[in-house]
Write a structure and sequence with these properties.
The structure is a single chain. The chain has one helix and seven strands, in the order βββββββα. By secondary structure, the protein is an alpha+beta fold. It has one domain. It has a seven-stranded antiparallel beta sheet, covered by helices on one side.
Length: about 110
């Protein structure tokens, strides 16, 4: 199945064919869930060097406390609470591992599970 996704770069909206690879929401507790969305795109988004578009988020009490994404123009990066930092994408398996590791650390430090 092929879907279309869009990105905005230089004020222009681009429509691309995208193949969904993962679209999953995992409820961890009454107030906490993780959402993982990963698409294969025909060409890298502006600011990225790979053919994926992704959004991995940990949400607690309605607030996104951890997010990995590659918004067009910003490239690969992650947000932990209110801080944003570049992220070095080295493949899907490493992305999932790094997100899981940071999510586990946040959950442990904040006594959420």
């Amino acid at each position: 199945m092929v879907f279309f996704t869009s990105c905005v770069a230089d004020g222009i909206i681009y429509i691309m064919k995208a193949v969904p690879l993962i679209s999953q929401r995992v409820v961890l507790s009454r107030d906490v869930f993780a959402e993982i969305v990963l698409w294969k795109v025909p060409e890298p988004l502006k600011g990225s060097r790979h053919g994926y578009k992704y959004r991995l988020a940990l949400v607690a009490d309605g607030r996104c406390v951890l997010r990995y994404d590659n918004e067009a123009g910003k490239g690969d990066h992650r947000h932990i609470d209110n801080e944003e930092a570049a992220y070095r994408f080295e493949g899907v398996d490493k992305l999932l591992h790094d997100f899981h590791s940071d999510a586990r650390k946040w959950l442990d430090e904040n006594s959420r599970l």
